Protein backbone atom coordinates (compact mmCIF):
# COMPACT_ATOMS: atom_id res chain seq x y z
CA UNK A 1 0.00 0.00 0.00
CA UNK A 2 1.39 3.41 -0.94
CA UNK A 3 1.60 6.28 1.52
CA UNK A 4 -1.15 8.13 -0.34
CA UNK A 5 -3.41 5.07 -0.22
CA UNK A 6 -2.78 4.68 3.52
CA UNK A 7 -3.68 8.33 4.13
CA UNK A 8 -6.89 8.13 2.09
CA UNK A 9 -7.95 4.80 3.63
CA UNK A 10 -7.33 6.10 7.17
CA UNK A 11 -9.24 9.30 6.51
CA UNK A 12 -12.19 7.25 5.25
CA UNK A 13 -12.12 5.27 8.55
CA UNK A 14 -12.17 8.44 10.66
CA UNK A 15 -15.04 10.62 11.89
CA UNK A 16 -13.10 13.56 10.46
CA UNK A 17 -14.25 12.97 6.93
CA UNK A 18 -17.80 11.68 7.37
CA UNK A 19 -19.23 14.78 5.69
CA UNK A 20 -16.51 15.33 3.10
CA UNK A 21 -16.66 14.42 -0.59
CA UNK A 22 -13.81 12.44 -2.16
CA UNK A 23 -12.22 15.54 -3.74
CA UNK A 24 -12.23 17.28 -0.34
CA UNK A 25 -10.66 14.24 1.31
CA UNK A 26 -7.92 14.30 -1.32
CA UNK A 27 -7.30 18.01 -0.60
CA UNK A 28 -7.03 17.24 3.10
CA UNK A 29 -4.73 14.28 2.40
CA UNK A 30 -2.22 16.57 0.65
CA UNK A 31 -1.41 18.37 3.91
CA UNK A 32 -1.10 15.24 6.06
CA UNK A 33 2.15 13.50 6.95
CA UNK A 34 2.80 9.91 8.05
CA UNK A 35 4.99 9.12 11.05
CA UNK A 36 6.18 5.67 12.12
CA UNK A 37 6.51 4.63 15.76
CA UNK A 38 8.05 1.42 17.10
CA UNK A 39 6.39 -0.54 19.90
CA UNK A 40 7.02 1.25 23.20
CA UNK A 41 7.75 4.64 21.64
CA UNK A 42 5.98 7.66 23.10
CA UNK A 43 3.94 9.74 20.65
CA UNK A 44 2.80 12.42 23.09
CA UNK A 45 3.39 13.04 26.77
CA UNK A 46 2.99 15.90 29.23
CA UNK A 47 5.50 18.66 28.46
CA UNK A 48 6.27 17.27 24.99
CA UNK A 49 6.21 19.84 22.18
CA UNK A 50 7.10 17.63 19.17
CA UNK A 51 3.50 17.21 17.99
CA UNK A 52 1.99 20.01 20.09
CA UNK A 53 0.01 21.57 17.23
CA UNK A 54 -0.80 18.39 15.35
CA UNK A 55 -3.88 16.23 15.29
CA UNK A 56 -2.83 12.59 15.39
CA UNK A 57 -4.86 10.00 13.48
CA UNK A 58 -4.01 6.34 13.97
CA UNK A 59 -3.47 4.60 10.63
CA UNK A 60 -2.24 1.18 11.75
CA UNK A 61 -1.05 -0.59 14.85
CA UNK A 62 -2.14 -0.17 18.45
CA UNK A 63 -1.77 3.00 20.48
CA UNK A 64 -2.75 3.44 24.10
CA UNK A 65 -3.48 6.68 25.97
CA UNK A 66 -2.81 6.57 29.69
CA UNK A 67 -2.84 9.07 32.52
CA UNK A 68 -1.43 8.97 36.01
CA UNK A 69 -4.26 9.01 38.55
CA UNK A 70 -2.80 9.38 42.00
CA UNK A 71 0.14 6.98 41.86
CA UNK A 72 -1.28 4.52 39.33
CA UNK A 73 -1.44 4.47 35.54
CA UNK A 74 -4.99 4.32 34.15
CA UNK A 75 -5.81 3.45 30.54
CA UNK A 76 -7.98 6.16 29.08
CA UNK A 77 -8.55 4.85 25.60
CA UNK A 78 -7.07 2.22 23.31
CA UNK A 79 -7.12 3.83 19.90
CA UNK A 80 -8.39 2.02 16.79
CA UNK A 81 -7.42 2.96 13.22
CA UNK A 82 -9.09 6.27 12.37
CA UNK A 83 -9.18 7.42 16.00
CA UNK A 84 -7.74 10.76 17.09
CA UNK A 85 -5.28 12.03 19.67
CA UNK A 86 -3.85 15.48 20.36
CA UNK A 87 -7.24 17.16 20.05
CA UNK A 88 -6.67 19.72 22.84
CA UNK A 89 -3.52 21.28 21.41
CA UNK A 90 -4.74 20.99 17.82
CA UNK A 91 -7.83 23.02 18.74
CA UNK A 92 -5.63 25.73 20.25
CA UNK A 93 -5.18 24.55 23.81
CA UNK A 94 -1.94 25.05 25.66
CA UNK A 95 0.55 22.16 25.60
CA UNK A 96 0.56 22.35 29.40
CA UNK A 97 -3.03 21.03 29.26
CA UNK A 98 -1.76 17.65 28.06
CA UNK A 99 -2.24 15.17 30.88
CA UNK A 100 -2.09 11.90 28.97
CA UNK A 101 0.77 9.89 27.57
CA UNK A 102 0.18 8.22 24.21
CA UNK A 103 2.38 5.17 23.59
CA UNK A 104 2.62 2.79 20.64
CA UNK A 105 1.74 -0.70 21.91
CA UNK A 106 2.86 -2.21 18.60
CA UNK A 107 4.66 -0.85 15.56
CA UNK A 108 2.30 1.87 14.37
CA UNK A 109 1.79 4.42 11.66
CA UNK A 110 0.03 7.67 12.45
CA UNK A 111 -1.10 10.54 10.32
CA UNK A 112 -0.33 14.03 11.56
CA UNK A 113 -2.33 17.08 10.55
CA UNK A 114 -0.46 20.25 11.47
CA UNK A 115 -2.76 23.02 12.68
CA UNK A 116 -1.08 25.78 10.62
CA UNK A 117 -1.38 23.72 7.41
CA UNK A 118 -5.01 22.93 8.26
CA UNK A 119 -5.78 26.60 8.93
CA UNK A 120 -4.32 27.48 5.52
CA UNK A 121 -7.45 25.85 4.04
CA UNK A 122 -9.66 28.52 5.65
CA UNK A 123 -9.22 30.94 2.74
CA UNK A 124 -9.45 28.43 -0.08
CA UNK A 125 -11.63 25.57 1.19
CA UNK A 126 -13.45 26.66 4.37
CA UNK A 127 -16.02 23.85 4.09
CA UNK A 128 -13.26 21.28 4.70
CA UNK A 129 -12.24 23.08 7.89
CA UNK A 130 -15.85 23.32 9.05
CA UNK A 131 -16.69 19.67 8.41
CA UNK A 132 -13.42 18.36 9.88
CA UNK A 133 -14.01 20.38 13.06
CA UNK A 134 -17.52 18.89 13.24
CA UNK A 135 -15.90 15.46 12.93
CA UNK A 136 -13.57 16.25 15.83
CA UNK A 137 -16.56 17.26 17.95
CA UNK A 138 -18.37 14.01 17.06
CA UNK A 139 -15.29 11.99 17.96
CA UNK A 140 -14.88 13.79 21.30
CA UNK A 141 -18.58 13.38 22.06
CA UNK A 142 -18.27 9.64 21.42
CA UNK A 143 -15.43 9.40 23.94
CA UNK A 144 -17.44 11.32 26.55
CA UNK A 145 -20.52 9.13 25.98
CA UNK A 146 -18.45 5.96 26.27
CA UNK A 147 -16.78 7.16 29.48
CA UNK A 148 -20.13 8.19 30.93
CA UNK A 149 -21.61 4.77 30.15
CA UNK A 150 -18.63 3.06 31.81
CA UNK A 151 -19.04 5.28 34.86
CA UNK A 152 -22.73 4.38 35.15
CA UNK A 153 -21.93 0.67 34.80
CA UNK A 154 -19.25 0.91 37.49
CA UNK A 155 -21.64 2.78 39.79
CA UNK A 156 -24.30 0.11 39.23
CA UNK A 157 -21.76 -2.58 40.05
CA UNK A 158 -20.49 -0.86 43.21
CA UNK A 159 -23.97 -0.08 44.51
CA UNK A 160 -25.45 -3.35 43.15
CA UNK A 161 -28.34 -1.57 41.47
CA UNK A 162 -30.47 -2.48 38.46
CA UNK A 163 -30.23 -6.21 39.26
CA UNK A 164 -27.44 -7.00 36.84
CA UNK A 165 -24.72 -7.66 39.36
Task: Write a structural description.
The chain is of the alpha+beta class and 165 residues long. The protein has one domain (3-159): Sandwich (Jelly Rolls). The chain has helices at 3-12, 22-29, 87-90, 115-119, 121-124, 126-159; strands at 32-37, 42-44, 54-60, 63-69, 72-79, 84-85, 100-104, 108-114. The mean pLDDT is 86.
Descriptive keywords:
single chain; 165 residues; alpha+beta; Jelly Rolls; four-stranded antiparallel sheet; 6 helices; 27% strand; globular
- What is the end-to-end distance? 47 Å
What share of residues are in beta strands? 25-35%
- Give me the side-by-side strand order of the main sheet: 1-8-3-6
> Regions with pLDDT < 50 over 5+ consecutive residues?
none
Instruction: Indicate the structural class.
Output: alpha+beta
CATH classification class? Mainly Beta
Output the helix-strand order: HHEEEEEEHEEHHH
Sheet with most strands:
4 strands, antiparallel
| CATH architecture heading | Sandwich
Q: CATH superfamily, please?
A: Jelly Rolls
CATH topology: Jelly Rolls
Overall morphology: globular
Total DSSP E strands: 8
Helix content: 25-40%
What value does the average pLDDT take? 86
Oligomer: single chain
Number of helical regions: 6
